[in-house]
Amino acid sequence: MPVMSDFSRVSKKEETSRFFPTLICAATSWEAFPIAQALHLKAASSDSFFGKFGGRSILLIKTGMGEAALKKRLSQLPEGGVFSRVISTGFCGALKPELSTGDIICDGLPEVLSAKAEIIKNSLGLKVYFSPLAHAEEALYSPKLKKSFADKTGALVVDMESSPLKFWAKEKNPDCEFASIRVVLDSLEDSLPAQTPQNEKTLSFIWYFISQPRSWANFGKLYLKQRRASKILVDFLRRLLDDSGDLK
User: Fold this and answer.
1) For residue 248, is it within any domain?
2) Domain count, the chain
3) In terms of pTM, does the model score above 0.90?
4) Which of 67, 71, 109, 160 is the most buried (most CB within 10 A)?
């Protein structure tokens, strides 16, 4: 009996994507897994989750970091699958000193969800900004790089996936409802590890920590920020998307 590959299993599950009004994209496991759990989505594979939440069918995929990885993952979705709503979510980097870890950034929310976001912001005591995200080709590791990028763009925050995902979504369906819902991970003055593990497997992290001992302190601080930011984002998303099935 032939063994079905991981990719085959994913393809069979995602073949039903034409019946999923909402596609949610997150870059890494640290972003995607907590969201899948909070929205009660079932795993189709290590990077694909599906189910219903808030009256809507949802497909959540882990895309990998950056535009190239995103495009590769999107190309694996079945042809003909059309989504009425696409959401880019996960972490972003602050480009202004007033933003800090845990602040929420929303761009492109429909009017009803914007009003709901205001209510959630007040009930949870969060800082929520409604502002476009700047697109960067590479991670901005140092305060110097972030400040230079901020001077060029004038943006509040930056990420690497929202812009190309929006282009893809609108190309697939011009009437698609697209939104970015992100949480600030690193503030303007935070430095990120200049090199990161090549993937999310345990062996990659072991090799990373052996070969990069000077990065341990930064990585430890980043881990704590990631835990806090992820919790805030998941809670915000869960409340925002609950009972939203009446929207297109």
Assistant:
1) no
2) 1
3) no
4) 160
